[in-house]
Amino acid sequence: MSKIKIIVADDHQLFREGIIALLSKNESLDIIGEAASASELFELMDKNAPHVVLMDISMPE
Known about the structure:
alpha/beta; Rossmann fold; 3 strands
């Protein structure tokens, strides 16, 4: 069974770390990246093919 690939994007590092810590406990999920800005998110999405992007709707850039 393949894991669900997730990228977490938020400009607040502590929030990203907390979400990643919670999601990492689920063995069916794979956190493939994190981004602090929209440009970082787009770069990650170009390199990877996430199934889900969990993101803040108001980030820099």
